[in-house]
Amino acid sequence: MFRSNRKRKTIHAYVNGAKIISFAVMVIIVLIGWMVIYCRCQTFGKDIKDLEVQNAELLRSLKAEELKWMRAKSPDNLMRALNKHGLVMGLPNISQIRRIPRKDMLRASMSEVDGAEGLGLASIDIRNNSNE
């Protein structure tokens, strides 16, 4: 009789779970990163919309205030306000006019910018009455 080959046949197949698990972890990390970026973009978009609405409201109120100011400083309204308070205004006499030389104005503006003089108030010598 004939004898059969009784060697065990081994299957050389590797079930490598590490590759599958690492791929799944990478997919999860990418999805979480995408969700974080998506949520941040949504938040920024909402903030931008809110700021645009606020900007539109501020522009509307700015235009309204400018219109009020333009109406208040019109010559008719100024005369009406002066008459209401009993004020009489006219042009100043020549002796009341003080001319500030340009170099003193520049020095005064620079000292205001630097804050060198106390609270930003510059002292200008108005005794010099020359027209430069």
Structure described in brief:
Helix content is 60%, strand content 0%. The chain is built from three helices and no strands. The radius of gyration is 42 Å and the shape is rod-shaped.
Summarize the structure in words.
The longest helix is centred in the middle third of the chain and has 56 residues, at 17-72. The chain folds into two domains: 17-89; 91-132, no CATH class. It is built from three helices and no strands. With 132 residues, the chain is an all-alpha fold.
The biggest sheet amounts to: none
CA gyration radius, whole angstroms: 42 Å
Measured by DSSP, the beta-strand proportion falls in under 5%
The percent of residues in helical segments reads 55-70%
In quaternary terms, these chains amount to: single chain
The parts where pLDDT drops under 50 for at least 5 residues are 115-126, 128-132
Shape: rod-shaped
Give the rounded overall mean pLDDT.
Answer: 80
